[in-house]
Amino acid sequence: MTSADTDDLTMRRQAAMAVLAHVAADDIAGHLVGIAVPAHENMREPENGLVMLRGRAGGDGVPFNLGEATVSRAAVRLASGEVGIGYTLGRDRDKAGLIALCDALIQTTDHAAAIETQVLAPLRSRVDAERRKKTAETAATRVDFYTLVRGES
């Protein structure tokens, strides 16, 4: 695998995770129904844990610990050897497992196209539509403030 292939695969995986992180586990499972999922094993059973959130004062200041967030994570290995990793905010272990499975399937030549067309494309369009709707709702409440300058000298 060349460096360009590795970069392309990394970008596809990142794009997939950006979509899968914003949908419910039932939605992912519903779209996976039409795909013949190969044999796989859990390398890491889905589990809940905590991650430390870091912040910076003013965006570029000294880092500080902002607080903790609950996450779920899982790792899956396909029979062909591909390993998928799934993380999601919250306590949804099923979703973490499904994300890991999709991540592993994206890495295979046999299933990557099916995952893209049958799972990611419909979910991506729905996530984008929800973002556009939320943006429009937010824009409708926008208030423009202005200051009148008094004519005193």
List the helices and strands and how they pair.
Elements: H1 3-20, H2 25-32, E1 40-56, E2 63-78, E3 83-89, H3 93-106, H4 112-140
Antiparallel strand pairs: 1-2, 2-3
How would you sum up this structure, described in words?
The protein has 153 residues and is of the alpha+beta class. It has four helices and three strands; from the N terminus they run ααβββαα. The chain has a three-stranded antiparallel sheet.
- Count helical runs: 4
* Rg over C-alpha atoms, rounded to the nearest angstrom: 21 Å
Number of strands: 3
* Biggest sheet, spatial arrangement of strands: 1-2-3
The class by helix and strand makeup works out as: alpha+beta
Task: Name the helix and strand elements from N-terminus to C-terminus, one letter apiece.
Answer: HHEEEHH
Helix content: 40-55%
Outline type: elongated
Looking at this protein, list some descriptive labels:
elongated, 3 strands, alpha+beta, 153 residues, 3-stranded antiparallel β-sheet, 45% helix
Overview in brief:
With 153 residues, the chain is of the alpha+beta class.
